[in-house]
Amino acid sequence: MGFLFILIYFVLIFIVLEIAVMLLIVTGLDSEIARFQAVSMLTSTGFTTKESELILRHPVRRKIGVFLILFGVFSLAVMISTLSNLLAQSFRVPQLTGVTLGFGVVLLATKNKRIVNSLKRRFHKHLKQEFELHELPIEEVLYFTGSDLFTGISICKGSAMAGRGFRDVCCPEEDINVLFVQRGETKIRSGCLQLSLQEGDILFVYGDKEAIEQMFRRELDAMRQEEGNEKHVTEL
Whole-structure pTM over 0.85, yes or no? Predict the structure, then answer.
């Protein structure tokens, strides 16, 4: 009976994990990242810093993460208790079977396309109504599409932008917007378009991805090269 309890509980854990993965995917997370992060949170083994930001910056994903962490800790305690009392306890298998079947129904519901589309609309509406603008992920605030890009552009040595203002080299018709300029520890917003840029300044721009990559090709290439050099040094 004890082994049956453990088997059913493992099925319950799997179903809860699958539900969490589906909900994370509904919020816009890539399926592979969603599964890896869900397993990491459920087992309390930690997850990578870069990918963890995708969870932490999204209010709905944070709630899913909190549930997974708490459920994982509770499940570990249950497993330890069950194994230690395997031969001495009488387990309530029928009740546990009912709970597991209930989660199974929820899992099937999250895989239904109509329900998934409805959840997407609800999550999006919930984000707009329940959370302050600064709490939303940047893709929600800036209405990201596949052709949009938000990035920091470092003014490298020999850049055409050095000593000039953004308006001097960018036509008003270009779909490129400078949100602010970071110079050292200082963030400059007021008058940043007319600011005479210096080497080392970082422009935080938002707009059409192709237009940004075309205008800042030299700066982006320099940033990629520097990143590659740093990676090479780290590996050594």
Answer: no
